[in-house]
Amino acid sequence: MSVTTFPSRGGAALRQPGRLARLFDYKPFLIVMCLAPAIGLLLVFLTCPLGLGIWLAFTDTTIGQRGIYIGLENFQYLLKDPLWWNAVFYSIFYTAVATFGKFALGFWLALLLNNHFPFKSLIRAIVLLPWIVPTVLSALAFWWIYDPQFSIISYLLVDVLHWRDSNVDFLGSPWPARFSLIAANIWRGIPFVAISLLAGLQTISPSLYEAAMLDGATSWQRFRYITFPMMMPILAIVMTFSIIFTFTDFQLVYAITRGGPVNSTHLLATLAFQRGIAGGELGEGAAIAVSMIPFLVFATLFSYFGLARRKWQQGEAND
Amino acid sequence: MTDVAASNVASATPDTMAWDSRTRRVVMIYLPLACFILILLFPFYWMAITSFKPNAELLNYKEHNPFWITSPTLAHIKHLLFDTSYPRWLKTTMLVAIGSTFLSLFASTLAAYAIERLRFRGSPYVGLGIYLAYLVPPSILFIPLATVIVQFGLFDSPLALILVYPTFLVPFCTWLLIGYFKSIPYELEECALVDGATRLQILWRITLPLAVPGLISAGIFSFTLSWNEFIYALAFIQSGANKTVPVAILTELVTGDVYQWGALMAGSLLGSLPVALFYSLFVDYYVSSLTGAVKE
């Protein structure tokens, strides 16, 4: 008896685990302690506001005044509000055109970067710059590029190439302003898409291309039947992220046009800010923000099916 | 045998049309690549050149070529540094970026360790929950968050930003670090357990030193993301002195009808430089974290 207990006592004396140390070695306690900071931060500043935001959307809260529950009144008001419909339209249009542009050009850039050429890593680093730099600051550069009087693009078209007689009015009327913003968004989004897709391209085994070349496949066929299907899973993920963050974009529009001219370039996020924070109608702003959620759920489902397909592919090709 | 045949065919095809493939290569690869780089970099060139141009050249394209500067000036930068609170804004932004980076690294390292190494029932669901948090964009949170911040008495304080930024940094960092912890052999930890180390000692002495590249990637990513953040900083900070650089340039420097383009572009350039420098020092980590997170 004494012989068997001796070693454990000796071990205890050797390590001298304090009560605190033993508590931290107790696994459930350790798990709770490790997860507490992250989960706590996310609960207090993400989950809680999300719920609060949905609640606010059903109240008539304004800044400095607690609201009361008014049911669907905010949403009924929004459905009759042409500005909200305008923002919904432009948010969808902006997301669709910008995402298409980003992916077409980004995929092309990724395919280009996948070749061998000198200074490859330097060029890859440079390409990411638009994505690194604070969006608002590059948006200011675009604002200056789109200036009605001193636009460098107008200078090129009018004074250098003589293609036009007058300066381009980029931000003065609705449709040019809409497309100018989309162009700036595409410019900012290309690097992220290109670098993520490049990572995907590099995982495709060269032996697939060799086999296809043996069978006499043209370069278009190689792209269509090897590159594109192999890239589907990563395309789906990157596109989901891109759609979510383009649809809820705020900075670019707020910096360049602030929703103007005549409210034609409001996205739902900028409209929510204008009504909620600048206008003080917290309840209505929250309702506009909440009205984005169905679109986001749709985009997330898109991601889910992309991921599901990826798992299926991994199961087929032994990972 | 078939391998040899395959490589023969592959190498023979370019040989037979050697000169043709070279021009083809220029047209198909170098020319589009050059266009891409030109367009992607032009706004930065334009930003830089505007910030050193004297106003006379800036607003007169007839006599001065707008693509070049004949008499560069530091007037805009001087105006920015001495006549505005720009240094103060830079300091606030730095403080917020560093504070939120450390806070999110701390929280996400522990969370990633718990999810990946402590392995409890339901840990995949916790991981998935944290991942889903990344899909909630700030645009739908800022209005309710503003009321939460006011209730905590943190309105108009940089501390509010330090506490709020981890909501979008922690999910990303946690996923990045889970990937890194996965790559560290579990046997190392088992050896340490056998030798009588506590779990926290293992984390501190064994796992963390091996995960340093992952920590650096997550740190750079967090730093740039919090430096660039805009909507929260715009909604939660009221007084001019406490603003971060992106917000301050847009709200404090854009005044009246005549825009001070020189000063605006100088401010943008200076505000972009810290992240660009930081990024260029760690570009490999950055690219690997970006692509790693996407692949995850």
3D architecture notes:
The complex is a heterodimer of chains A (319) and B (296). Chain A is an all-alpha fold and 319 residues long. Chain A contains 16 helices and no strands. Chain A has helices at 2-15, 19-25, 27-56, 73-79, 82-113, 120-127, 129-132, 135-145, 152-160, 174-201, 206-214, 219-247, 251-256, 268-278, 282-290, 293-316. In chain A, helix 5 runs parallel beside helix 10, helix 5 (82-113) packs antiparallel against helix 12 and helix 14 packs antiparallel against helix 15. Chain A is globular. Chain B is mostly helical and 296 residues long. Chain B folds into two domains: 2-74, no CATH class; 84-295, MetI-like fold (Orthogonal Bundle), CATH 1.10.3720.10. Chain B is 77% helix and 0% strand. Chain B is built from 16 helices and no strands. Chain B has helices spanning 2-16, 18-51, 55-58, 75-83, 86-118, 123-134, 142-151, 158-164, 166-183, 186-194, 199-210, 212-228, 231-236, 245-253, 261-281, 283-295. In chain B, helix 4 (75-83) crosses helix 15 (261-281). Chain B is globular. Chains A and B meet through helix 2, helix 3, helix 5, helix 6 and helix 7 of A and helix 1, helix 2, helix 5, helix 6 and helix 7 of B.
Q: What can be said about this structure in brief?
A:
Chain A is an all-alpha fold and 319 residues long. In chain A, 75% of the residues lie in helices and 0% in strands.
